[in-house]
Amino acid sequence: MHHAYIDKFAYQDSPIHRLDARVKFVITVVFTAVVISLPRTTVSILFCYAVGPFVVLVMGGIPLRFVLKHILYVSPFVLVLALTSPWYDRTAATIIFGPWIWHTTVGWMRCWSILGKFVVTMLALIALISTTRFANLLAGLQQLGVPRLLVIQMGFLYRYIFLLIDSAHHILRARAARSAGGVAFGRGAKFAAAMVGSLFVRSIDTAEHINSAMQARGFDGNWRTINRLQVRVVDYVFVAIAVSFILGLYLFVKPLLG
Amino acid sequence: MVKAIEVENFSYKYPDGTIALNGVTLDVEYGERLALIGPNGAGKSTLLLAITGFVRGTGRVVIDGMGITNGNLKKVRSRIGCCLENPEDQLFMPTLFDDVAFGPLNMGLDSQQVKQRVNLALAEVGLAGMAERAPHHLSAGQKRAAAIATVLSMSPKIITLDEPDGSLDPRNRDNLVKLLAGLSQTLVIATCNMDFAAAVSDKAAVIDGGRVIAAGPAEQIMSDSKLMTSHGLEVPRKFINGYSAA
């Protein structure tokens, strides 16, 4: 297993890590919804909103390099959307940020707004994932009323995605070991199809074994768990600070920045 | 007198018609540690599946005095725990706690009892204090021990283990031998590793071609070099005359 990096910081200990998973999840959802609902041409306020998740990441001891790397991983999808905006709307516009003034177009403002919202919401999401154990997050989602079947599916996905990635790595390594000098495109495509098929069959096999393991331990179709989450005073304090920050920026700072 | 496991003239065919088990008859007394030994494809794993009610063929399988039927499967499985060959299949929950608690919760125990059983089971396999770890963060030896804990927490009378020593290094294998030696349950262990079988069992059954070829005291069976070699096995070092572990 060489890729536990997906959740490696979730097992650290910090005041942020110790917060209740439900609280962190709800605050992240509210924060994301507010940031996304900001006007499409609003850019300056996004810098202020970025402070929130940034502080959480620093307090949680999450290296910023790790955060930036993961933002870059998913950025291509958003980049396509953002970079096409300047072509659609070339109306002249002015950005004022403190003493600085830029003359640009609405399209470019939208582009920066999309990128800014993406970065800020990704910061919040990474802060949530990196400071919350996935098991606690699943338990929290279940407590918050997310359908049990969906929570179970996510649990299995989290548990077995690592094994699936491992299997794919092994197959790719086996191919590399026997393909000196590279492989032609046609054969490469054929191999990719065979690999997907092999992984599919292995997944079915694993699912059957897991089903046996569950039945052997008395599973009868009813998923039973113990709730071990607990909301403490510090969680209420965190909610108060987070809500004040999110609403304060929205109600008082945004009108000033325009 | 009731025995832990009674298998009488049991036969099973795979859906493609291949005979996996052919008239198997085998008894295991309470507290015995039976090693099912045989070459690859002999039918050891299938016999374990038959004992735990996962494959149903012709003949009789009686566990703790109960013949396996569709109606009593849940009751049978509360008395016989099974550890699958691959611990990754056994550990399917996001944390070790949830995995070890899975069985007791399905038995209808309250949360206090479940927590108590989880802590006891983890302590018994040497994983105390690791309840919140995710299974993919455990080593191969720890995964094997955790898989056994998932069964121990249900307090079964009998435990079956399919190739429990697979992919373990010598140190982890020694730890597993010590762990199994400390268990009070009736054990049925399928393995191809003769040294391991000799270390953990007091009774052995040689299986080949879906049949029980011989069964008896472990030393008597495993020191019979003619019997062992004729079925693709070897005499464990422990039973080789003049061999000294030192």
Summarize the structure.
The complex is a heterodimer of chains A (258) and B (246). Chain A has 258 residues and is mainly alpha-helical.
- Classify the helix fraction of chain A into a percent range: over 70%
- One letter per element, helices H and strands E, the order of chain A comes to HHHEEHHHHH
Helix/strand structural class of chain A: mainly alpha
Give unreliable regions of chain A as ranges: none
Domains of chain A, number: 2
Describe the structure.
The complex is a heterodimer of chains A (258) and B (246). Chain A is mostly helical. In chain A, 70% of the residues lie in helices and 5% in strands. Chain A has eight helices and two strands, in the order αααββααααα. Chain A has a two-stranded antiparallel sheet with strand order 1-2. Chain A is flat. The relative contact order of chain A is 0.15. The mean pLDDT of chain A is 87. Chain B has 246 residues and is of the alpha/beta class. Chain B has a domain at 5-85 and 157-239: P-loop containing nucleotide triphosphate hydrolases (Rossmann fold, 3-Layer(aba) Sandwich), CATH 3.40.50.300. Chain B contains ten helices and ten strands. A six-stranded mixed β-sheet of chain B has the order 6-7-8-3-9-10, with helices on both faces. In chain B, strands 2-1-4-5 form a four-stranded antiparallel β-sheet, with helices on one face. In chain B, α4 (96-106) crosses α5 and α5 packs across α6. At the A-B interface, α5, α6 and α7 of A face α2, α3, α4 and α5 of B.
List its traits.
heterodimer; A: 258 residues; mainly alpha; 2 domains; 2 strands; 70% helix; flat; B: 246 residues; Rossmann fold; 6-stranded mixed β-sheet; 4-stranded antiparallel β-sheet
Helix and strand topology:
The complex is a heterodimer of chains A (258) and B (246).
Chain A: H1 21-37, H2 44-59, H3 64-88, E1 92-97, E2 100-105, H4 106-131, H5 134-143, H6 148-177, H7 185-216, H8 233-257
Helix pairs in contact in A: 1-4, 1-8, 2-4, 2-8, 3-4, 5-6
Chain B: E1 5-13, E2 19-28, E3 33-37, H1 44-51, E4 58-63, E5 66-67, H2 73-79, E6 80-83, H3 87-90, H4 96-106, H5 111-124, H6 140-152, E7 158-162, H7 170-181, E8 186-191, H8 194-200, E9 203-208, E10 211-217, H9 218-222, H10 225-230
Parallel strand pairs in B: 3-8, 3-9, 6-7, 7-8
Antiparallel strand pairs in B: 1-2, 1-4, 4-5, 9-10
Helix pairs in contact in B: 4-5, 4-6, 5-6, 6-7
